[in-house]
Amino acid sequence: MLYEPRAPSAAGIGLRSLRDIGGAFKSAALTALVALGLFSLLIGERTDQGPTGALVLTPRLEVLAILVAAAFVGGLVRALVLGRDTAAAGGLVPHAAREAAARIGGLAGPALLVFALATPLLFYHNRYLLDLAIQILTYVMLGWGLNIVVGLAGLLDLGYVAFYAVGAYSYALISHASGLSFWICLPVAGMLAACWGILLGFPVLRLRGDYLAIVTLAFGEIIRLVLINWQSLTGGPNGIAGIARPSFFGIPFSPGENGFANVFGLEFSPTHRVVFLFYLILALALLTNLVTVRLRRLPIGRAWEALREDEVACRSLGLNTTNVKLTAFAMGAMFAGFAGSFFATRQGFISPESFTFSESALVLAIVVLGGMGSQLGIVIAAVVMLGGFELFREFEQYRMLVFGLVMVAIMIFRPRGLVGTRVPSVFLAQRRAIAGDFVREGHG
Among 3.40.50, 3.30.1120, 1.20.120, 1.10.3470, what is the CATH number of 106-438? Predict the structure, then answer.
């Protein structure tokens, strides 16, 4: 006698639906409770200065209630739409829309490059946007350099700002002592930063995971404390001022007879130097991207990726993991040194306050949110994060709150970053991108 499965009854379906709705409300209530615990002191209370000069706590229960209600509604919608499977968010997008987005995504890189080249022409009279674009490109370059260590080699580095500081101070000290130009000091600063990267690599050869992160964090703090206390060399907390500016093949951007404007028959404008700095950091960033992409296709790049996937298997294949780790640290540190040299010559002044742990955290967040190993994702993340900071500058009290919520949302719905794809270095038959939805975290 054959077994015939019975169709679920209406009562069973209704009971299951009630359980799903009840679970959704339970999850939303838990989300609201967590939001209440987090925001009760951050948002629910505000410190004001009283008539006597003492601090007075002013309750803001209305704002707190709005935030908790928003958390409840968001948790309820998420639970009803996605259930327990957060990866189902990709299924809500039609297949045709995903294919169109993939085709458009292939044009995103060239479009961003064209826009970057035209930025000084479009915003020539807006000094604020030009300075913001220079800052974004600086962090894009730092993100691409850290991507070698974190995204390709899989080594969690929380002290990346140390190499940034080494490059800046190396350029400033060499320029002050010898009077050499920016173009000569730039490669020297990069090589010195690479040497410090190798020095960091030796003590952490046997470390991985959380232990590696702690040691690199300590290294970044050691460099910062050395810069503060070695006053005879670094100037201590006062920093170094009067750093030499870069020139256009020996032509300074000054209003004199030998200045850039007079030589080329132009009317003098301080914006000329800003435009030159923009194209300079753009060239350095594109050089970083080109070298990273080329190295990724070489044997050393494939060795980095093998180390990222499984260090034990990488060692069993006969690869020298010591050299692999040291080259990753050295290459990442070298590009951080280049970026530090540019930062020093752009600002004309550096101090230890510019190289705190928050800088390392910001660069690491750009790499992780953009998608580890994704060059384009780092650009998008840098634009979104730094542009978002400036967009919410008027809402100073809520800027970090919104920033944190966006980061949490990205980690929930896009755990592999904004551009969650992994493109292999070697192709057997044809080139094919592997979507992040098909690759689980930590399992390649």
Answer: 1.10.3470
